[in-house]
């Protein structure tokens, strides 16, 4: 509870500073989360989808393992970023964290499935992960045009 309050205060401080028009940085329009989503989340997820569902030949488990670790790392990073502009209320914040926690949980299970070379489970988990991406985007009314699908 205390952590939530502190987090809230910190975030409120952040958004206050960000709305001041005086110090404009070159790429401030794009939120840190947007950048992370585009440059890391989407990239690693697309790579995994391709590897697991579409690549020819044997699955490269060492590579899958590397990507699974990256996915887990990206999901963890989301927690430490400032809230994106569309997360405007405490309720929205709860929803945001709930989806992110769900993704974190699924990413952990995926890392496990790769370690066990459990391909059917990897496929199921990747499909579920894709649904969590979509659910969060849908809740925040984001129209993700280039979101990968299996
Ligand atoms: C906890 C909620 C949440 C989850 C889960 C989530 N995203 Fe996002 N995503 C967002 C938000 C919020 C933005 C917009 C950020 C902004 O514009 O500031 C975004 C933006 C994006 C974008 C940029 C789209 C654009 O056109 O601006 C891509 C691509 C993306 N997400 C891919 C993914 C993928 C792939 C996954 C799952 C592996 C995923 N996201 C999981 C909340 C989420």
Record the SSE blueprint.
Blueprint: H1 2-18, H2 32-54, H3 61-79, H4 90-115, H5 119-139
Helix pairs in contact: 2-3, 2-5, 3-4, 4-5
Bound molecules: heme C.
User: Which compounds are bound in this model?
Assistant: heme C
Quick check: average pLDDT?
A: 83
Total beta-strand segments = 0
Radius of gyration: 17 Å
Unreliable stretches covering 5 or more consecutive residues: 1-25
What is shown here, in short?
With 150 residues, the chain is an all-alpha fold. Helices cover 71% and strands 0% of the residues.
What features would you highlight for this structure?
5 helices, mainly alpha, binds heme C, 150 residues, Four Helix Bundle (Hemerythrin (Met), subunit A), disordered N terminus
Describe this structure in words.
This protein has helices at residues 2-18, 32-54, 61-79, 90-115, 119-139. It has 150 residues and is mainly alpha-helical. Helix content is 71%, strand content 0%. It is elongated, with a radius of gyration of 17 Å. Helix 2 packs antiparallel against helix 3, helix 2 (32-54) packs antiparallel against helix 5 (119-139) and helix 3 packs antiparallel against helix 4 (90-115). The longest helix has 26 residues, at 90-115. It starts with a helix and ends in an 11-residue tail after the last helix. Heme C binds next to helix 2, helix 4 and helix 5.
């Amino acid at each position: 509870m205390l952590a939530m309050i502190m987090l809230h205060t910190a975030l409120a401080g952040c958004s206050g500073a960000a709305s001041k028009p005086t110090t404009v940085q070159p790429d401030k329009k794009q939120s840190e989360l947007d950048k992370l989503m585009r440059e890391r989340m989407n990239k690693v997820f697309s790579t995994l989808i391709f590897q697991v569902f579409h690549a020819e030949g044997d699955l490269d488990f060492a590579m899958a393992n590397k990507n699974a670790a990256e996915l887990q790392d990206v999901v963890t990073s989301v927690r430490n970023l400032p809230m994106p502009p569309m997360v405007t209320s405490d309720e929205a914040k709860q929803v945001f964290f709930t989806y992110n926690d769900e993704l974190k949980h699924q990413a952990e299970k995926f890392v496990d499935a790769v370690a066990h070379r459990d391909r059917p489970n990897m496929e199921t988990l990747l499909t579920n992960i894709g649904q969590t991406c979509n659910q969060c985007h849908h809740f925040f009314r984001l129209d993700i045009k280039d979101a990968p699908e299996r």
